[in-house]
Amino acid sequence: MRSSNRTNDPPNRTTRAPGASLVRLSDLAPGVLRDIALVWLADAVVGVSFGAIAVAGGHPLWVPVLMSLLVYAGSAQFSAVGLLTAGGGPVAAAVTGLLLNSRTAAFSLALADDLGRSWAARLIGAHLITDETAAFVLAQDEGRARKAAFWISGIGLFLAWNVSVLAGALAGTALGDTDKFGLDAAFPAILLALVLPALRADSTARRASAAGAVIAVAAAPLLPAGVPVLLALLGLLAARRGPRRPRTTAPGSAS
After folding, report:
1. Using CA atoms, how far apart are residues 103 and 232, in angstroms rounded to an integer?
2. Most buried by CB count within 10 Å: which residue of 6, 79, 218, 222?
3. Structure confidence by residue, pLDDT tens digits, 78-109
4. CA 80 to centroid of chain Cα atoms
């Protein structure tokens, strides 16, 4: 449905997020929409790979399609399908998926105010929280820009992922060995590019990121997949130990 505030100027078109105020493309900083579109594209490529891998592993088409709609978590979906294909049970697949996705609990706390105040906005928004949407939101400084980054990237990613998974599942085994494309490195590279500006500008972020990276690399050979990522959150303790920034007061306010 088109907004009643439709204008002939494309950057000012609006999208109504569930239970939230109008979200405008113009609320995004220059270049952010381009970056979001690139992540949509990368997400679609990986989605095609997931759909093809799931069907090639002997699962019926509805399994990757329904999983993408209800679970909507790339790494957890790949892990679950891999375990099921290797002969693991559904309980093991579910536990692994929950373990990998538990990191989004921290994202939810950080992004809660950017989803909207209504229960509908928060319920739908919680389903759209991913590594990518969190990265886009946390890279913005202003409230409207953060909300726009979340809903525009989140809705677009959800559509791109599900459409591409369906396409990959329909393609079946026609793609051959998807590992040779190096798709497993696509998302880490994109996320690194997204957070680099914040790392350059904030020494606290650099300290926390470095500590988390060391913890994850040290734990990777010893612990199951997914656990090192969770342990990397301990790097936040390094940020707490850093010097506190002085609070600034607005002109004319009491000090």
Report:
1. 10
2. 79
3. 877 877 776 767 777 777 777 777 777 777 77
4. 18
Determine contact, residues 16/120, Cβ cutoff 8 Å: no
Q: How is 203-249 classified by DSSP, letter by letter?
A: HHHHHHHHHHHHHHHHHTTTS-TTHHHHHGGGGHHHHHTSPPPPPP-
Q: Residue 171: name the closest of 53, 57, 72, 46 by CA.
A: 53
Distance (Å, rounded) from C-alpha 133 to C-alpha 113? 14
How confident is the model at residue 164, as a pLDDT? 93
Structure confidence at residue 165 (pLDDT): 93
Measured CA to CA, the distance from residue 46 to residue 196 in angstroms comes to 22
Q: Which two tokens stand for residue 243?
A: 């010097």
Retrieve residue 239's tokens: 């940020």
Closest CA to 124 of 135, 132, 133, 115: 115
